[in-house]
Amino acid sequence: xxxxxxxxxxxxxxxxxxxxxxxxxxxxxxxxxxxxxxxxxxxxxxxxxxxxxxxxxxxxxxxxxxxxxxxxxxxxxxxxxxxxxxxxxxxxxxxxxxxxxxxxxxxxxxxxxxxxxxxxxxxxxxxxxxxxxxxxxxxxxxxxxxxxxxxxxxxxxxxxxxxxxxxxxxxxxxxxxxxxxxxxxxxxxxxxxxxxxxxxxxxxxxxxxxxxxxxxxxxxxxxxxxxxxxxxxxxxxxxxxxxxxxxxxxxxxxxxxxxxxxxxxxxxxxxxxxxxxxxxxxxxxxxxxxxxxxxxxxxxxxxxxxxxxxxxxxxxxxxxxxxxxxxxxxxxxxxxxxxxxxxxxxxxxxxxxxxxxxxxxxxxxxxxxxxxxxxxxxxxxxxxxxxxxxxxxxxxxxxxxxxxxxxxxxxxxxxxxxxxxxxxxxxxxxxxxxxxxxxxxxxxxxxxxxxxxxx
Amino acid sequence: xxxxxxxxxxxxxxxxxxxxxxxxxxxxxxxxxxxxxxxxxxxxxxxxxxxxxxxxxxxxxxxxxxxxxxxxxxxxxxxxxxxxxxxxxxxxxxxxxxxxxxxxxxxxxxxxxxxxxxxxxxxxxxxxxxxxxxxxxxxxxxxxxxxxxxxxxxxxxxxxxxxxxxxxxxxxxxxxxxxxxxxxxxxxxxxxxxxxxxxxxxxxxxxxxxxxxxxxxxxxxxxxxxxxxxxxxxxxxxxxxxxxxxxxxxxxxxxxxxxxxxxxxxxxxxxxxxxxxxxxxxxxxxxxxxxxxxxxxxxxxxxxxxxxxxxxxxxxxxxxxxxxxxxxxxxxxxxxxxxxxxxxxxxxxxxxxxxxxxxxxxxxxxxxxxxxxxxxxxxxxxxxxxxxxxxxxxxxxxxxxxxxxxxxxxxxxxxxxxxxxxxxxxxxxxxxxxxxxxxxxxxxxxxxxxxxxxxxxxxxxxxxxxxxxxxx
Lengths: 455, 472
Known about the structure:
By secondary structure, chain A is mainly beta. Chain A has helices spanning 2-16, 80-84, 96-103, 105-113, and strands at 27-30, 43-45, 51-56, 59-64, 71-75, 117-124, 130-137, 146-154, 159-167, 178-181, 187-192, 195-200, 205-207, 211-216, 223-227, 232-236, 242-249, 256-260, 266-272, 280-286, 292-297, 303-306, 313-318, 331-337, 345-351, 372-373, 379-385, 392-398, 403-405, 415-416, 419-424, 429-433, 438-442, 449-450.
């Protein structure tokens, strides 16, 4: 027990302050970053995986993934990382909650909460020439007008305000959490969760949005959506006219998630069961033939990707019984769901006792990071439980389910040896970060070793 | 066995005698009355609805949806709805059926379990009775309830005046979408448009139902109001919250520079028959929850008249004479002691088109100790006013205190405020002498009903000296 406590203490320290050694051959892009760990959306890799935009030290930065230094695109004063970068708050590093704990509520409210500006979404334009984001004064009370400044920071360094979306306390929806700029730059689609509202940039007013869901294509100007009332799965053109309907009806009142394959030939439609169930059911739809294949799962929060091989899907999610006490996870898994009737193939899977030593109850424990895949979904980087200590070590996982642990096993960080943010530069590198550095590493230089299979 | 036979005989005798007794006890109707259906049994809504051409009435009685011509009365039962409120075969505990009397009477004296058992057998509710624009038929719905799924099961029908019934909508309890339980049939018969109270699922937006596909159509509007003279609609668009004019296919034809505020506790739009004027009412505030503010607007010239009112249920009717409309409802002032307004009176006011000064046809002021206050406080505006001949004549309930009780008595009132009491025997009901469904026959008839009869009364038999009421 004493040994375990010591291990937890080391991990706690490691999660907070120790500057981990960078792997060999790492190219440091930013040697002194300050993250806002509450906002995982504060970093965005460009669709071509050649650039990265991120928020650090109260600014928006852009950087080539192969070399630094980063270029500052916009000042973001009074945002979380601006406070975290102040000398008096450097102790908190990437976690503004630590400041609150240190200052106490009233002091924190006076010095930070009343002044803080929140960054909403960070999304690349489809042309990859800029980053769209929103700025909103932190909520002070429920009767205030929500003012969203929707900004475009181009990679050439120009910052422009696209629009200001003001929502009165009685407006529904009242606040937005993300923004999509249409390729013709006529509209911004503002999202409350997944629920869209189309905003006309020329009139500065909303446009009628007869959709409950609107997912932009990464490949064209079209959208995959759920139409209001008919609740039908539809494809919508750039003028938001329905151009194709499918025999899929999203049940009214059930939360929905859509996924669209890059080639726009397949869709995954998932519908959450009624509260308090976490289960879902749905369809994988061949949008060319209209054929449907039913799917179901235990956890609506699971993440899916189309792999680019027909309707094949990759799934990452929770395994085992869901526990409420520890970030609702008792284990995780990575699987391939083949295109067709074949059985799903588990690539990696782990689980542990939530009260056991491998998943410690610790304040501000980093969230379990989502696995990342290369562009062909041949190889994954996935955090799996570390041997002999709490926390996780990154592994390569291939399509046969074989795993290799990353070097750097001596790292005491909870997520070791570093956070993998994605495959970049034509799958030749991975983008990673520690608590204070952003870097990329040539994949060929990562000398992973085979490790015993995980339970 | 002997006792059973005796009981059966007793029941038979009672059954045979009861209608006769009821008929014998039925109050005398005014002169000139034509009985349309001599043996009705109604229960609350839907109330009888008169066709737009004023020649037919649709109603629900004795478990049947029925229709009757006013000139040549011959009640036609178009569809039986078993296990509905007025179905005569409904078996109540203790051997009672609605056929033996009023439903509330049936339930009196029952234990709670017996009442619950009786109530559980009433599984179908009838909605609608919405006439088509050409008076060739009407739409009604039958809504059942799936207890296991806690969801409605709906069927909506179109009945012609000849009695032909066609199903327009059929939805099950596992319907993945919102559904309708009645609605307005569009002129081309392609869509059924349900507004707030015609939806089986609670939702604030109207719903357009595609009759052919038996599915809903995307309805991006917060309010839809049909034209009474064409297939067009006026409404408030979702998201933009803009006032828009729509064609028969619900395409936006024109946008107006009027926007529904985000802060609203209720909204109502009224559209003149000539499609040129609207009255826009937005309920404001929570602590004075029933006040409204709005305007009358000439859609062509943009001329606007600001309006406000104390109570949201105030009835506004365009008379059909240009943009002229009438206001009927209660007056009030902010209470010092409660959230809401105190009733101080009631009014029937004609507001002329344009900037003309409003003119009271009738107005009453009440004091806190006034006997009329209590009655007027309880007046629901709708459907308690009927209008004929472009606002030349009104049927209006006036509050009275007589025979040591409060009551509302129907009167006919002209634009000058001259009124005649609707004759008929006072049977001790709150609304007396009987219920009115409205004007018909080009304003020459009143359609009315009491507990056992549906009938028409010539207006000419009411508007005459002996019924005249002197102005106070």
